[in-house]
Structure formats: C-alpha cells, structure tokens
TrEMBL record:
InterPro entries: Homeodomain-like_sf, HTH-type_TetR-like_transc_reg, HTH_TetR, Tet_transcr_reg_TetR-rel_C_sf. The lineage of its organism: Bacteria, Bacillati, Actinomycetota, Actinomycetes, Kitasatosporales. This is TetR/AcrR family transcriptional regulator. Residues 11-71 form the HTH tetR-type domain. The keyword DNA-binding applies. Keywords: DNA-binding. Residues 34-53 bind DNA. The keyword Flavoprotein does not apply.
Length: 202
C-alpha cells in the first residue's frame, strides 16, 4: 500500500502552525486554545493565521486531517510479495485501531472535546476518511485481483470496512475491561481481526 500524503495545509510553514496547535490542544484542550496562543507558539502573527484559518476550529480540523491520515497510513504495511492482500489489509487496519488508541491527540480530543468528532460520525465524511477510503478501495481491488478478497463493489466494500473499523476506533474503550485478559483491548483487536477476515474472505 502506498501512503496518501495530505498537502491541504500547504507545506512546512503550515506544519509549524499545526504543530503549535497540537501542542496547545494537548496542553489545554480545544476550547481553551486561542489563536493568540497558537501564533505565539508558532512564532507568527495573528494576522498570518487569520489569512489562512478563520478560527481555532478550522485550525484543529486541518490538524486532525494531518494527524489521522498519518496514523492510518503509517499503520498500513506495504504490500509484500507472496502475501495475500487480504492479510495486509487486515493486519494494517488492526494496527491502525491500536495506533489511534495510543495517539495522544486522539485520546485528548476523545476525553475533552469529543463533539469535534461527531460531524464525521453522524453528518459527513472528512478529508482523512476520504483518504483512507481511497487507500482501502485500491487495496481491496488488489485483493480481488489476487483472489484473497471476495468480489464486490470496491468503494462500497471499503466504506463498509471503514464503518467497522471506526466503531472499534471510537468506542473500543467503552467495551473493554483491562483487568480481564478476555475483555482487554488486545482481545477485542483479535475479534476485529476475525471480523475483517470473515468479511473479506471469498
């Protein structure tokens, strides 16, 4: 699988701004982050920020897009010769759920500002979801070509798989009991692997 790189925020200058937003959000959460705080951390003027982002939420939206794409694509391994695409997809998606669960920004937003994620669950797809769907659909086509993934409309199949993975990513901690090995997060990730295998096997 080839990682999709997000360029929407426009290069290293914007990366420095998004890094500053990330540091602010990790320190105080989204609601207490101000454009003044971000500008100070990034070493730019407030007017520089206003020319690109009208408010903190738009900044945080670009930050989430950058971070989520990096987490998801970073977890998906490259296709390996002789390894069925289904195995690569399943391994990568389970690794992505694990990586999101350990990601400091994702955990902070889930703990302090979960309403930021609701539009992408209830109303519309975000840029990171679109990028992952593109990546998934391409990988599913590879799996259909090598016979390891059942034949189906690849975009519909990718969206269905993402629905499964999203539910584990967002809600896993509501179902786990880390004191019980059979109900700990790794046990549930094992269940996710089984679900994906059975969903994709011809």
């Amino acid at each position: 699988m080839t990682p999709i790189r997000h360029n929407g925020s426009g290069g290293s200058d914007n990366d420095a701004v998004l890094d500053a937003v990330r540091d602010c959000v990790l320190a105080v959460g989204v609601r207490r982050t101000t454009l003044t705080d971000v500008a100070r951390r990034a070493g730019v003027s407030r007017m520089t920020l206003y020319r690109r982002w009208p408010d903190v939420r738009s900044l945080v939206g670009d930050l989430m897009t950058r971070e989520w794409i990096a987490v998801a694509t970073g977890a998906l391994p490259e296709h390996r010769p002789g390894v069925p695409a289904r195995e690569v997809i399943t391994e990568g998606l389970v690794a992505a759920v694990r990586a999101f669960g350990a990601h400091p920004l994702f955990r902070k937003i889930l703990d302090v500002d979960p309403e930021l994620l609701l539009p992408y669950v209830l109303d519309r797809r975000g840029a990171s979801q679109e990028a992952l769907l593109e990546l998934l659909a391409g990988s599913l086509r590879e799996g259909q070509a090598d016979g390891s993934v059942r034949a189906a409309h690849p975009e519909r199949q990718a969206r269905s798989v993402l629905l499964i993975v999203q539910s584990f990513t967002l809600s896993l901690r509501t179902m786990t009991d880390e004191d019980d090995p059979e109900l700990a997060s790794e046990a549930f990730l094992g269940e996710l692997r089984v679900i994906l295998e059975r969903t994709l096997t011809p």
